[in-house]
């Protein structure tokens, strides 16, 4: 019976369906009609006290920036498209906006410990070709220039055959201090530009902490050839100058 009395805060369009009742004979008193007359005869204050006030709340929509801020505070550490958590355990690195993995975690991926969850792992070696040729992680691809990595990864994106599995990309350079992190950010930026937010071709990007310089001494058997050629090698000064000019 309280539904017959509309709260002032509720629009009439909401209450109208409630007021529609089946017509009944008007010539007899019923317990319900007697109770209704009593409530009508009460004071306005009594009626207001008996009436529960319904509240209508307006829904709130968030912009992309607000969504990113909310997810950034989520302890689950979601990947770039916010579909799931990062698979690989990460460690502290130089750049707080990037996800770093240890050499040990890299070896775990190389030895197939995540093969049931990862369909394809692309290791992007961002060093210059003479460094790569002097020794690199087995299976790594040498993509030292932005146009190289854009051609390899984004012109024809790698899509898993099994939708339940992942495609991950791991970047590194000599120390993973500048070239690797810069290339990682470049791929994410270009990936965002060619997809409708928040979708990405490569939502799960990592950087190898310490780069090849830290990986090689510990895991030489996972390198080919088993050697390490630094960027500032005496015999390749001209190559260094040439590639630095091209990368500007």
Automatic annotation (TrEMBL):
SMART domains: RHOD. GO terms for cellular component: centrosome; cytoplasm; nucleus; spindle pole. Residues 20-32 have a biased composition (Basic and acidic residues). Belongs to the MPI phosphatase family. This is M-phase inducer phosphatase. The keyword Hydrolase applies. Interacts with MAPK14 and 14-3-3 proteins. The keyword Metal-binding does not apply. The gene is Cdc25b. It comes from Calonectris borealis.
């Amino acid at each position: 019976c309280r539904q017959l009395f509309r709260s002032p805060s509720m629009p009439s369009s909401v209450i109208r369906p409630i007021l529609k009742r089946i017509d009944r004979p008007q010539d007899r008193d019923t317990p319900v009609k007697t109770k209704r007359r009593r409530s009508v005869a009460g004071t306005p204050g009594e009626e207001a006290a008996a009436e529960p006030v319904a509240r209508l709340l307006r829904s709130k929509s968030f912009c992309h920036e607000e969504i990113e801020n909310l997810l950034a505070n989520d302890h689950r550490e979601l990947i770039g498209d916010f579909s799931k958590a990062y698979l690989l355990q990460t460690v502290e690195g130089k750049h707080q906006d990037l996800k770093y993995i240890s050499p040990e975690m890299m070896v775990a991926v190389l030895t197939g410990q995540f093969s049931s969850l990862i369909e394809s792992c692309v290791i992007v070696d961002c060093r210059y070709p003479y460094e790569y040729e002097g020794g690199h992680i087995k299976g790594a691809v040498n993509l030292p220039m932005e146009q190289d990595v854009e051609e390899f990864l984004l012109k024809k994106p790698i899509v898993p055959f099994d939708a339940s599995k992942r495609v991950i990309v791991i970047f590194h350079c000599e120390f993973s201090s500048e070239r690797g992190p810069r290339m990682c950010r470049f791929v994410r930026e270009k990936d965002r530009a060619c997809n409708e937010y928040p979708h990405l071709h490569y939502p799960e990007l990592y950087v190898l902490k310490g780069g090849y310089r830290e990986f090689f001494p510990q895991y030489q058997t996972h390198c080919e050839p088993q050697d390490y050629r630094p960027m500032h090698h005496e015999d390749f000064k001209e190559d260094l100058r040439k590639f630095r000019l091209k990368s500007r």
